[in-house]
Queue: 3 jobs
Job 1
Amino acid sequence: MQELMVEIPQRSYPILVADGLLADAQTLRAQLRPHIRGSQVAIITNDIVGPLYLDQVVAALDGLQVDVLHMRDGESAKTLATYEQAMDFLLGARHNRSTSLIALGGGVVGDLCGFVASTFQRGVDFIQIPTTLLAQVDSSVGGKTAVNHPQGKNLIGAFYQPVAVLADPATLSTLPPREYAAGLAEVVKYGVIDDPELFVFLEDRCDALLAKDGAVLTEVIVRCCAIKAKVVSADERESGRRAILNFGHTFGHAIEKLSGYGHWLHGEAVAIGMVMAAQLSQRVAGFAPDKVERLTALLAKLGLPTELDQQSLKVVTVAAMMDAMGLDKKVVDGRLRFIVASELGEVAVRDDIDDGVVRDLLSQCC
Ligand SMILES: NC(=O)c1ccc[n+]([C@@H]2O[C@H](COP(=O)([O-])OP(=O)(O)OC[C@H]3O[C@@H](n4cnc5c(N)ncnc54)[C@H](O)[C@@H]3O)[C@@H](O)[C@H]2O)c1
Ligand SMILES: [Zn+2]
């Protein structure tokens, strides 16, 4: 079991990573209960995760009023309609200002539950129990909460930190392989942006990672959370340095969108985007060609795509990419913003990169 803190003035909170935590009712109770202030708890989960892990969480909450909302699975449920459904559910079950919400699921459940928590009765406590790798290393930490709008993803939301994050790598045993690999893309990202030793650790432990080895996963999740916690503590609202977490994402978001949401998982699009970002880094920041190769090889070994496939090549053209990136949230004052690496673990936020360089790079990939 390993614990670390996200240090934010007045709202610091622990992240606990423990392999087998959910199956161990006594330890889970000991870890959960100190974070629950009142006598009411509402768990938000979904149709997939609920049947797998809900009983274990409920078993640790004996003696409390526990109500459960099962939302529909998938990104398409991250809407204001589900948010409203959650509000109706909480009010219907008479939850009050001292209730605690628990998000049990992946990033979709976590983002929605967090947004509900941020506004129910002007804000109530919430605990994240992330069950996807992406949620364990990324979305459950940092306090970005949101729902989607027909005009775009995450357009309605709030910065709202949980009171605790409890991650159990054992839950990843039931995660579909593509979802697992998509989470690994974000893991690799942390190595590139901040932790060259993590990058080498990933290269060395590929097989253990692919086998979902509990000890290796615990180590990896803690290191990733430590980086995210450090970056978020310094810049909670992404006015500057927090943007480094978007390495590969300017390209990745555009690929995800142009290919049609659902073709690539987010992490898969980010993997392709990171290869593009590495190639851009080689051109504008002196990132060594052998490091571009190591990054590409690592992603491939972890089961991730590193280039566009035939189907997406039909729609992901250079012009479409430039256009889509121009509309991305990462544009500041009309200038495209990229995160580029000069070394493994050394990145900078750049908004001075010539459009021509980007276009030229894309013409080799699209
Ligand atoms: N808040 C943030 O900082 C942040 C950061 C990154 C991504 N996100 C958001 O996170 C969401 C994506 O999260 P995600 O990748 O976890 O997707 P997800 O929540 O849709 O989960 C992926 C799939 O795995 C299923 N699942 C979850 N846990 C499982 C388990 N243990 N066993 C079997 N199946 C399981 C889910 O039901 C779903 O079908 C997006 O909405 C994205 O916008 C938020
Ligand atoms: Zn991402």
Job 2
Amino acid sequence: MVFFMYDVIIIGAGVIGGSIFRELTKYDLSILVLDKENDVAMGATKANSAIIHAGFDPAPGSFMAKYNVSGNKMYKNSCAELDVPYENNEALVIAFNTKDIKTLENLYKNGKKNGVVGLEILGKDKTLQLEPNLSTSIIASLRAKTSSIVCPFQYTIALFENGIANGGELLLNSEVTKIEKYKETFLVYTGFGKVFQTKFLVNAAGIYADKIHNMVLQKSFSISPRLGEYIIFNKSQGSLFSRTIFQCPTLRGKGVLVSKTVHGNLFIGPDAEDVVDKDDVSTKNSGLTHIFRAAKNTSNKIDFNETLKNYAGIRAIPSTGDFIIKNYTKLKNFIDVAGIKSPGLACAPAIAEDVVLILKESGLTLNKKSNFNPIRKRINFLELSNKEKHNLVKNNKAFGKIICSCEKITEGEILDAIDRSFSVPTICGIKRRCRAGMGKCQGSYCTPQIIDIISRRCNLDKREICFDSADSTILLEKIR
Ligand SMILES: Cc1cc2nc3c(=O)[nH]c(=O)nc-3n(C[C@H](O)[C@H](O)[C@H](O)COP(=O)(O)OP(=O)(O)OC[C@H]3O[C@@H](n4cnc5c(N)ncnc54)[C@H](O)[C@@H]3O)c2cc1C
């Protein structure tokens, strides 16, 4: 059965699909995003280094270089519009020996060619003055003043909230299983027998973008998984460094980094291991040991007793070496936005603008909406003034009740996160939206209360509530 006809369907609700989605909602169009998972940002967008790179790393002339430098400049404004935590905290790439110094010089030249501003090579003393907790074995650094940090999943959630508020549609739990060309349109088949028709189709399916491409065109590239593992620390470690500290990059990645997060934690990682399984994000002893040792070289001040959690993400490595962002002479209304490996997060807003241009060149009519509202707001109780807190609690008692005592998150914020959820809320979905359960106890104390709140607000049996993905229910039986 064919459902409504859309102007544009986007496959994939990561930061790339979300950025294109929001950009398109500025125009008078019917837009639908389909994702196989039960929330947005469940792929690479959920687990990465969260750095809005300056752009000194990608090869000059590549898509990665072009979009990194322009995307970096767009983040401050889009995070302000979307009320998402962002900090221009700068970065240092550190050198331990003369070979590393050569690398810094090459990165500096590369960055200049890419149009990166605010780069300088610093000696040991100046570097240690900026970051006194660095190892005294370092001998120089490359400073990148435009490097920033963001919360990638909160950013993506906000992109979707804003896109939906501006008339776009999102359908989760909808894996695209088949695509057929039908006259000048596409029929997009999803699980459970639903079929959607669209004039234009955008492939932003991350690690599975090759599979989607092959549904409509001859195979012309492949996407391979490369695992990256991390260790995150308590906030007690978050002030060790102001800047993001990179070791020198290798052929396989940007090098192990140590950085604070926008929420005040510290994290280290990633490693870079080519793997076979595109979905396996379990961490391994070998990878964690590698990043642990590498981070110890960066600084011996990190207290490893303060470890909070390990996690891993899968990079989508394209066989072409660069992002694949194009339509095809044979199939102008199908656009691949594939192989978006790092620095894809940093590139996302710039990629979105270009994809809209490609769609326009392919025949999509773009009429600006007069009522597009770029602003999305959320309630963060801790950030409010005392007067604002007082008024909020006076009007709604739920803001006077702390549920997550580690992160100081109120019941009001949890209810707000539930009401904003795109589908049935999950424990981790609530955590990603308002940070309840992100703290030192990792939800040991507040999870039962959050289950209770979801159950009441959504009128759900507690046994139906999932931890994260659609098959992760946590309560099996009622025993009393
Ligand atoms: C370890 C690591 C570190 C990184 N560090 C950084 C960094 O610091 N800075 C930076 O700029 N970039 C970084 N990146 C890269 C960045 O995370 C990615 O470029 C970005 O998240 C890619 O977004 P995406 O939307 O293309 O993919 P994803 O976030 O993976 O989204 C793709 C979506 O498609 C959906 N999907 C797949 N198949 C189907 C289907 N058949 N039907 C429906 N839906 C489907 C998936 O469920 C998923 O939600 C890093 C990546 C990793 C893994």
Job 3
Amino acid sequence: MKTAPPVRCLVFGGSGALGSVVCRCLHEAGVKLAFTYHTNKAAAQSLGHELPDSKALCVDLLSIPALNQVVDEVAGDWGGLDAFIQCAGVGLTGPSDATQVHHTMDQVDEQAWERMLAVNAKSTFFAARRVASHMRQNGGGNIILIGSIDGVKPVPAPVHYAASKGALAGMTAAMAKELGKDGIRVNLIAPGILEGGMSRVLPENLRQEYLKHCGLRRYGRLAEIAAWTTWLALHNTYLTGQTILVDGAV
Ligand SMILES: NC(=O)c1ccc[n+]([C@@H]2O[C@H](COP(=O)([O-])OP(=O)(O)OC[C@H]3O[C@@H](n4cnc5c(N)ncnc54)[C@H](OP(=O)(O)O)[C@@H]3O)[C@@H](O)[C@H]2O)c1
């Protein structure tokens, strides 16, 4: 019996907390995997060793030509792409050694606003557009973006972060409409606070507040988001244009 070829997946932000768990989950499911990193080469190398045959590529999402090149390189090597997962993002726009989020609107200057929107929203649009140009040649695929509860519900959040994540919801719905005729499905997973990753910069009082209002009374697990992501990448055929809020009922 002829076996189906592996699903070809590109993950942005494989060096991050969520991205690395997503990569492991996809790898375990037997996909052909490429992932990106930016500054954390050590994390990318260690993940690469852990996941044989995966491919790690360095990219700064502030450069649209660079991200186009990464997408083209992976799709070119594999003869196409079946799934794209955008797990890269920023929650802080201060100095790289800052450990706290911006709390108030007054602390967000023009530079911070532009960086947040550029990494979280602008790069996502251009990456999805480039990915779609490859997917449409192969009859379609799944594009999965990672947003946040902050862009969906009124929760205490840095306004520029919420704006960047809110932009993804509109983008997802509009892209699904435009790309549907090419067999391309676009969905956004919006997690609440997760056990690891960028939520480490949240002040303790906010973390406690979240637990108080969360129906399940706990933070989400990275593996729970990775499981949804993997399902969408491998099995989704009709769900598109949706923002899937995974917040334990806040
Ligand atoms: N963790 C949570 O509680 C939580 C909750 C809701 C939503 N989310 C969302 O989940 C996604 C992943 O978050 P995380 O917790 O895994 O964060 P993380 O551990 O800080 O990882 C962030 C990832 O984004 C990459 N990245 C950042 N700036 C980049 C740039 N300019 N160019 C290319 N790559 C860049 C990082 O690469 P390097 O490290 O290699 O520089 C890293 O791979 C984000 O979109 C976040 O908003 C997370």
